[in-house]
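lol so apparently i was supposed to do this last week
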Amino acid sequence: MNYNKIAEALDTAAYEAKPIAQISQSQEMTLEEAYAIQSISIARRYIRGESRLGLKLGFTSKAKMEQMGVHDMIWGRLTDKMMYEEGAEISKSDFIHPRAEPEIAFKVKKLIDKEITLENAKEYVSAVAVAIEIIDSRFQNFKFSLEDVVADNCSSAAYTIGEWKENAPITDIAMSLVVDNVIIHKGNSNAILGNPWESFVAAARLAKENGEVLNTGDVILAGAATPAIYIDSGQKVSAHAEGLGSVFLSVV
Ligand code: OOG
Ligand code: MG
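anyway here it is w/ 2-oxoadipic acid bound
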């Protein structure tokens, strides 16, 4: 398998907003190979000048696993180019078939260089916030195997984060995804691994296992609490989380 070639095809598909065929349709790929391809593809972004801002987890809720037919937690990288200011306009033509989902974001307080637990996780988080993640699979028809989506940096495309809150509770809070004032999906933060703090603990573990570091100021996206929805030009998309407030993007 030519890792470089596949990484380049995925990176170009994202850059040009043109979908490609699933890798798994033409060749076998292990999960390890998929993560290696993800690294190479993201390195191409770093070479273009993007910088890493943090990590995201995916398929941390049943709602998402069932929607996408994939059943294992995955992780990917977030870069500064993917970050949009709260309330920003995002241009649909920069994406292939973008979808939005409501998320919880963590801000890392200090370097994490060992495994952490549910009991001490809060010591490593300076603030939490509600967020919208825009996912945009680089594969045709948004269809993929677990290995495909891992190689594709877990469909990461864009995100925006609401006001950071230092001590807001995030367990068992209501969350929703709203388009033009219509509630599209409702959920609860505990849909994320039973408790969204588990997602932060998992991010620290996965980072350590994979030679990534969680640095002061990094952003961690916990994974969506509800299914995602396709978005379109002219829409105002917002995510809401009880006690954290809301955040929106305008699609143009
Ligand atoms: C993969 C990304 C999953 C989440 O929050 O579960 C994800 C996808 O659905 O395309 O970001
Ligand atoms: Mg997500």
